[in-house]
Amino acid sequence: MKTKITELLGIEYPIIQGGMAWVAEHTLAAAVSQAGGLGLIGGASASGDIVRSEIRKAKELTDKPIGVNVMLMSPYADEVAQVIVEEGIKAVTTGAGNPEKYMDMWKNAGVKVMPVVASVALAKRMEKYGADAVVAEGCESGGHIGSQTTMCLVPQVVDAVNIPVIAAGGVADGRGFAAAMMLGAEAVQIGTRFVVSKEAVVHGNYKERIIKAKDIDSEITGQSYGHPIRVLRNKMTREYLRMEKEGASFEELEHLTLGSLRKAVVEGDVVNGSLMAGQIAGLIKEEKTCEEIIKDIMSQAEALLKIQ
Fold it and tell me: Of 31, 85, 145, 229, which has the fewest CB atoms closer than 10 Å, so is most exposed?
């Protein structure tokens, strides 16, 4: 399947792996890219040296294009932005901020910039400042979220900008992929489904919790302070929501969740860890390789879209 995004990025399939903190490291990114999508290394709060190391490890595993997700709130964002240029990365997604300060440097180096947006206004602003595409992410996605659903956000962004739109949030199979294409997207970004891949270096407890998730197991924490995060419910979320309801300070809530994502991903603590996952978790029933995941999605989508 050829789209504006496959041509822009030089990839086989219009599937991009989300740049998930603690999850999107070199093994997963390389596996997704090797399977024909675009794998991303999640910069998160890592230093420039760590991101450089991850990029080089990924390149040892595949000669296909890989990208980096830059969390712009990171204290190391400046370092990571420079490393991307030095290491010859050709595609970047950005989140948690505005990438305008890096645009000239990246564009001069031939980097394709694809900011994650949660509104039409931000999408238009990113186009104005030179973005090559935008990732329109609905609130069904895991982790930090906006307020609009993918179904509503994507077509409005498609109508508002002239650059390609990548749909994110609530896509885990060919049906979601086909729906995104019908809304006008040129690709999809997928996170939670790749967490439950064989190549994802994620604790088995975390993967098993996603596999066992029901449709009602998704909760949103942090809404009272304007930092909503979608996670799977557990002891930590119940305590967080109780404290939030009782008017706990931002500092108290931050203390409760300090290091909680690492607890879940690395240590397998599904009781007190932050189990970031999208609403689509209830649809995921087994662990597969990245190649199997992508081929399953594409074969189902092509049948639905009747692509020969």
Answer: 85
CA distance 40 to 18: 6
Q: Which of 123, 92, 126 is nearest to 106 (CA)?
A: 92
**For the CA atoms of 247, 251, 252, 257, what is the dihedral angle to 10 degrees?**
120
Mapping DSSP onto H, E and C, the string for 249-280 reads: CHHHHHHHHCCHHHHHHHHCCCCCCCCECCHH
* Nearest one of 10, 8, 42, 6 to 23, comparing CA atoms: 42
What pLDDT does 49 receive? 93
What share of the chain in percent tops pLDDT 70? 99
Tell me the C-alpha distance between 14 and 223, whole Å. 32
Mean pLDDT value of segment 237-255: 89
Q: Note the pLDDT of residue 254.
A: 86
What is the model's pLDDT at position 115? 96
Question: Hey, what are 228's tokens?
Answer: 């909503």
Residue 53 has pLDDT above 70, yes or no: yes
125-145: burial string, b at 16+ Cβ within 10 Å, e else:
bbbeeebbbbbbbbbbbbbbb
